[in-house]
């Protein structure tokens, strides 16, 4: 009776009754609602929704990885109500849930895929959970200090023996559960082991006693390892690779190792690569730069239908890239993702006598574009890719042919319109160094240095209708907050070619209607930031925004435009700002409060200031915010008091709340960083290029 009356009143007021839609349409609408809301709230509204909310299409896969409102009681109730209907469960990054929450997963008897990365879980809890999951084939877990494989029951090990896909994040030297997984086809390893303990003791990369069991790689098809900085991570990954060097799996088709800095090749790794060259055909490849530079490895490796290549930071020349990897420019339509970040010579025929700032060879780039016409992800950042003044050969003009691009990363100097700049005299403000400078008066927002719509970058942005992720990063930019190191106090000046890139180029990005993620770093000619307003108005799907070192470094010249922009960003979820002398005051936070969907905020500012009252008011108004990281120039006392106030006021209502307020240049910064949940640290707090960082669909 009440349902009928409610439905009639709704129909009379709006003219449309939602319940009159077909089941197919309603199921599609409900698929956008978090599963916890469907099961615990929506299905209790009426009989029809009670049935639809339990449809297999909605309960087959349950995603809790970014449901920041879920708590232990909701997990318990959810598993009790639909546990038997769940086949795939993703709880990645649910760091706020107690380890006891994992115990409720035992009710999901039919579970095939389980992701517990970033969850608190002990060896005993893991053993209890996995012992009941006989159908499990895909597993993701963390291995933390104190993990003891001897505590795993025989039933748990039986489950692990049937697992085909394993993703393991290591925070301590260990094999984890790898030796128990005797049927592995896909192994993903993330090494996050620190070189020093909290007490300052040096850690060893040797595995603990009792963990000398040999991993089983005979069925392996995909091997992926990503290393955080540190020698211990290198020591441990070599132990994992030692088994591979003895016998290379015949079905191996993807071999990827992402290692920062120098990771020297050894006799064992050389034997492994030689064996791969003789016995396997690869579809995906990524190797440390020291393993490729100066070697003839690429000449001997064989490829089948490659979909991912990463030669990040390698000294590979364009000639080697075309001849050895792309078979002299032959058809490579299968390649969908290519990472050439930091490959300073990759668009030049040779590297022996070439300077990094010399013009690129457009024929090399054209061969790449023609051969890899189906590229969806391309990273050319961290290099000086300077186009010549010849008409029609500009990098932007050639990239415009890649109509399927979804994500693109470019250095700032690569988008300069060389021909256009040669026709006009240089502007004095363009050639000033990015240091302390004369303040610029901010008035009415105008496109003071607007280029015509015929500029090559404007045309490129207009030719990529499906682009979702764009990064424009200065070739010499480095974040003030690197991983595991003290904050950087000084930054290198921008490339000379980048000096003319400013507001007009930023305005051109507004053409990318479906843009979801945008990173802009070290654009020296930002005078007012007026282009940001265009993006806010036109890119209504924008979810992630990262701005760093825009304009002159002595003054935040784009503050007024940024505040205008934020008023239009209704879908923005993640905001990262890195700028010296940034003033996070009442006006800024009032503008930011218009971003009703905002969940995560990170501000990095040398000599920056904040108003504690404004921060508190912002957090009270923006109920979705669960992460607030500010690394500023304030004193330790001010930072600690604000952090304690935020936690005390909002933690109870926001179980996932993570607050870090800390002086950027404090000597204990690295100790504070190590306690940040990996989800936030990796996705927003630390600056990095994320385009083609990993193969697409590496993990579900």
UniProtKB/TrEMBL annotation:
Positions of the F-box domain: 15-62
The organism's place on the tree of life at top rank: Eukaryota
BP-aspect Gene Ontology terms: SCF-dependent proteasomal ubiquitin-dependent protein catabolic process
Record InterPro entries: F-box-like_dom_sf (IPR036047), F-box_dom (IPR001810), FBXL18_F-box (IPR047948), FBXL18_LRR (IPR045627), Leu-rich_rpt (IPR001611), LRR_dom_sf (IPR032675)
GO CC aspect terms: SCF ubiquitin ligase complex
PANTHER family attached to this UniProt entry: F-BOX AND LEUCINE-RICH REPEAT PROTEIN 18, F-BOX/TPR REPEAT PROTEIN POF3
Species annotation: Nothocercus julius
SUPFAM superfamilies, sorted: F-box domain, RNI-like
Gene: Fbxl18
Protein name: FXL18 protein
């Amino acid at each position: 009776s009440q349902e009928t009356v409610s439905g009639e009143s709704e129909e009379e007021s709006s003219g449309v009754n939602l319940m009159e839609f077909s089941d197919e349409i309603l199921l599609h609408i409900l698929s956008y609602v978090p599963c916890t809301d469907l099961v615990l709230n929506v299905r209790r509204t009426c009989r029809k929704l009670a049935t639809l909310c339990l449809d297999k299409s909605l309960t087959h896969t349950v995603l809790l990885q970014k449901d920041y409102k879920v708590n232990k009681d909701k997990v318990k109730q959810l598993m009790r109500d639909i546990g038997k209907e769940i086949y795939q469960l993703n709880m990645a990054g649910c760091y706020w849930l107690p380890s006891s929450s994992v115990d409720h997963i035992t009710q999901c008897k039919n579970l095939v895929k389980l992701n517990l990365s970033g969850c608190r879980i002990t060896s005993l809890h893991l053993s209890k959970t996995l012992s009941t999951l006989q159908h499990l084939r895909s597993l993701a877990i963390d291995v933390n200090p104190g993990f003891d494989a001897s505590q795993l029951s025989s039933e748990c090990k039986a489950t692990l023996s049937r697992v085909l896909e394993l993703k393991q994040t290591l925070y301590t030297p260990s094999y984890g559960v790898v030796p128990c997984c005797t049927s592995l086809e896909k192994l993903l390893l993330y090494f996050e082991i620190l070189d020093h303990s909290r007490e300052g003791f040096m850690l060893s990369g040797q595995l603990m006693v009792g963990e000398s069991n040999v991993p089983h790689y005979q069925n392996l098809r995909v091997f992926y390892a990503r290393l955080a900085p540190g020698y211990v991570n290198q020591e441990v990954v070599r132990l994992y690779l030692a088994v591979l060097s003895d016998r290379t799996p015949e079905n191996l088709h993807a071999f990827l190792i992402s290692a920062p800095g120098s990771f020297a090749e050894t006799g064992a790794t050389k034997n492994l690569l030689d064996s791969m060259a003789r016995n396997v055909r690869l579809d995906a490849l990524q190797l440390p730069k020291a393993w490729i530079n100066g070697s003839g490895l690429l000449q001997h490796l064989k490829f089948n239908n490659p979909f991912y290549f990463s030669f990040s930071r390698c000294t590979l020349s364009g000639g080697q890239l075309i001849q050895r990897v792309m078979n002299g420019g032959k058809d490579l339509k299968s390649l969908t993702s290519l990472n050439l970040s930091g490959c300073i010579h990759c668009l030049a025929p040779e590297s022996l006598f070439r300077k990094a700032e010399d013009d690129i060879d457009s024929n090399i780039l054209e061969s790449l574009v023609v051969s890899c016409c189906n590229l969806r992800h391309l990273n050319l950042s961290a290099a000086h890719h300077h186009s010549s003044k010849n008409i029609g050969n500009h990098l932007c003009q050639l990239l415009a042919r890649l109509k399927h691009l979804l994500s693109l990363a470019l250095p700032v100097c690569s988008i300069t319109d060389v021909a256009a700049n040669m026709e006009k005299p240089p502007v004095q403000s363009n050639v000033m160094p990015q240091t302390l400078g004369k303040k610029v008066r901010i008035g009415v927002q105008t496109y003071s240095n607007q280029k015509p719509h015929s500029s090559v970058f404007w045309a490129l942005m207009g030719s990529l209708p499906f682009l979702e992720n764009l990064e424009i990063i200065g070739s010499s930019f480095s974040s003030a907050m690197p991983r595991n190191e003290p904050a950087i106090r000084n930054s290198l000046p921008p490339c000379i070619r980048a000096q003319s890139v400013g507001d007009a180029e930023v305005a051109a990005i507004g053409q990318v209607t479906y843009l979801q993620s945008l990173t802009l770093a070290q654009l020296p000619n930002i005078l007012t930031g007026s282009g940001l307003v265009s993006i806010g108005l036109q890119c209504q799907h924008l979810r992630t925004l990262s701005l760093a070192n825009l304009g002159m470094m002595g003054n935040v010249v784009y503050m007024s435009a940024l505040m205008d922009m934020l008023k239009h960003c209704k879908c923005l979820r993640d905001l990262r700002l890195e700028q010296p002398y940034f003033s996070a005051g009442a006006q800024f936070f009032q503008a930011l409060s218009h971003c009703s969907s905002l969940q995560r905020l990170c501000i990095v500012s040398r000599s920056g200031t904040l108003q504690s009252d404004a921060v508190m008011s912002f957090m009270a108004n923006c109920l979705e915010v669960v992460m607030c990281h500010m690394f500023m120039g304030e004193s330790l006392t001010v930072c600690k008091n604000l952090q304690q106030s935020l936690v005390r006021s909002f933690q109870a209502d926001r179980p996932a709340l993570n607050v870090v307020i800390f002086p950027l240049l404090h000597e204990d910064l690295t100790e504070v960083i190590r306690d940040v949940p990996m989800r936030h640290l990796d996705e927003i707090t630390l600056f990095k290029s994320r385009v083609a960082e990993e193969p697409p669909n590496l993990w579900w």
